[in-house]
Write a structure and sequence with these properties.
The protein is mainly β and 381 residues long. It has two helices and 33 strands. The protein has helices at residues 8-17, 19-33; strands at 44-48, 59-62, 68-71, 74-75, 80-81, 86-89, 94-97, 109-112, 118-121, 124-125, 128-129, 133-137, 141-145, 156-159, 165-168, 171-172, 176-185, 190-201, 205-208, 214-217, 231-235, 240-244, 255-258, 264-267, 281-285, 290-293, 308-310, 316-318, 325-328, 335-338, 350-353, 359-362, 375-379. The strands form nine sheets. Strands 14, 15, 16, 17 and 18 form a five-stranded antiparallel β-sheet that branches.
Amino acid sequence: MLIKTIPTKVVAIVCRTYHLICISSLALLVSYSVSAADQHSSLQLRPIAPITEARAAHQATLLSNGDVLISGGCSNRCDAPATTMALYQHTLQRFITLSTPAMPRDSHIAQLLADDTVLIAGGWSNGQITAQAEHYQATHGVSPIANMLQPRAAATAAKLQDGRILLSGGQTVGFQPLASAEWYDPASAGFISAGAMQTPRLGHTATTLQDGRVLITGGRPGRRDMALNTAELFNPHSNSFSPTGNMTTARQKHAAVLLPDGRVLLLGGSDGNDNNRHNSTEWFDPKTNVFTAGPTMQQRRFKIPDAVVVMPDGGVLVAGGAKYIEYLNPQSGLFEQLSPALDLAPEFATATLLADGTVLLLGGYDTQINTSARAWLISQP
């Protein structure tokens, strides 16, 4: 405790005299005396060999064997969908391109099912929004299944406790945001209506709560509208949506993650003007259905719906939308900055928690919509 009370200036003078023995002491003192904005997380960032095709707005799905399926995405400044699917082999720490044919698509959904099949559905495909859906299986590749009830891109997907997948909102032809929802039933391999949300939403989030309900937050109700501060809850037993308390901040293209204590943390986004990005966060408590302000991130960031993960220790890793990665330390309750910085601020990148506790950060595009093939592994020492 004594070191916390020694003025930094005094220690600096001593260290100039006894430089070799004081570096560690000064570093220790600085770690106590700096503000949260100057702290650096102990997480480790390591670049790995890139994926074979640059992409953003893709999906990264963790398989039961520890590998990661990389499906879809947009390439070439997002003028066209990526033409390949890839597999990240974690034991070898490398990407391989899959030979199986698949529909080129981006801004789609991909969800792992109980039988280790991946459901891939919707999105943009060659300039059109599609209702087509596919299954990926490691032994059989990609095969078509029944279409969704409605073409939709940028929809949200939430896995229900009984294994069904709830798809909500998104946009259809003419950039029209949707209020409709449907679920995929693995038992029948088909899509069934799940009613409609209270409000059409695009750029929203959907998070399955521990009690089985699904929290829908934010987004915007029209292509050029401002963001919403409203939220809804989907009840899988009544197959209905109902409004819940308003968020503290209107946000779209943000992220939401379920924490071990049952709360949901919402992070970043924008107010609908892409220049007005948020560094704010907020909590949703399912016991009270109330939103309250959370800790402030050090960077303003949006287009991060798939770039935030909960780490094994309960901390939250935030990537994308800025060159620095951040970590919400569960002990201090503050965001810490991971050093060094990335060489771009990837938007619509993916961050995937792997079976060994490391995180695979992949792809995205920069502020000029240049897509990236870069990949990194992030780990706790």
